[in-house]
Amino acid sequence: MTIAITGANGHLGRLVLAALKERTEQPLVALVRDPAKASDLAEQGIEVRAFDYDQPEILASALEGVDRLLLISGSAVGQRIPQHTAVINAAKAAGVTFFAYTSLLHADAAKISFVAPEHQETEKLLAASGLSVALLRNTWYTENFAGTAEQALATGTILSSAGEGRVNPATRQDLAEAAAVILAAESPEPGTYELSGDESWTYADLAAALTEKSGKQVSVQNVSKDEHAKILTAASTPEGFVGFLLNTDEAIADGEYGDTNPGVLSKLIGHPTATLKESLPLLGA
Predict the structure, then answer these.
(1) Which CATH superfamily is domain 143-166+199-258+275-280 in?
(2) Over residues 170-174, mean pLDDT
């Protein structure tokens, strides 16, 4: 049984491979855009194959002999549908028997998050593919708040238009462990896995945790979406990043990165997910 991971040279991909090595002796394949940048994976006994989402003509041959595949969603927002379609078609052509995909927490109900539409469309493609599929609906990564924490420690303020919105983030490490558990199972279970952290928190909670850890006073400045945009623009924040920050806070305010019924992730990995305080080193605090 051969297990392959796309995007294997990325943060999550490398963590999934490490977790798989701890759980199985089955052959592992790292699918990467540039094999030369994954020489250390080859040194660990992991087979490295070229795999570029934008080169559909090479994908089926790269999946030859692969039984189980994890598609880590592409990072090129706006290009994911053709990329994911190419991978799904290649998996079918290569005879992959089990297909896992990193989607978004409660993707089917998400309406605000700018990343949701491409995940929703990919889930539809997988439903129609005839493949045995596990949807790994990952929550917002804890590490995504590193920039917020860095700015807060530098200025003493978290600028937010999320109000009292709560999030249930999880570290890449915890989410990678869950993917490895599912992929390495004796009989992998298809289905939808809503994967979120056990603990929910607000920006006010983050500010308090940063204050306690650093000894520097950090507070939250809650503003409207329009005011948030004006402040960011006045600070010469790139337009695209302004949109990302505003959309993230809007989705948090609407509860799209929160979870009213957490616990699936911690049950899968067999231990509680990392708490906010435990995760502060990942945020540079």
Answers:
(1) UDP-galactose 4-epimerase, domain 1 (3.90.25.10)
(2) 98
Which of the following CATH numbers is that of domain 3-142+170-195: 3.30.360.10, 1.10.760.10, 3.90.1150.10, 3.40.50.720?
A: 3.40.50.720
pTM above 0.85, yes or no: yes
**3-class DSSP assignment, residue 17:** helix
Model pLDDT, residue 76: 85
CA torsion 41-145-113-107 (nearest 10°) is 50
Mean pLDDT across the chain: 95
Name the helix (H) or strand (E) containing 93.
Answer: helix 80-94
- Residue 113 pLDDT exceeds 90: no
- C-beta separation of 157 from 231 below 8 A: no
Please identify which residue in the block is written with the tokens 């030369």: 36
Between CA 276 and CA 285 the distance in angstroms is 11
DSSP characters over 100-144: EEEEETTGGG--S-TTHHHHHHHHHHHHTT-S-EEEEEE--BGGG
What CA–CA distance (Å, rounded) separates 281 from 107?
Answer: 29
Residue linked to tokens 């592992």: 28
Using the 8-state DSSP alphabet, how is residue 44 labeled?
T
- Cα 58 to Cα 91, 127, 154, 157: the distances in Å are 12, 24, 46, 48
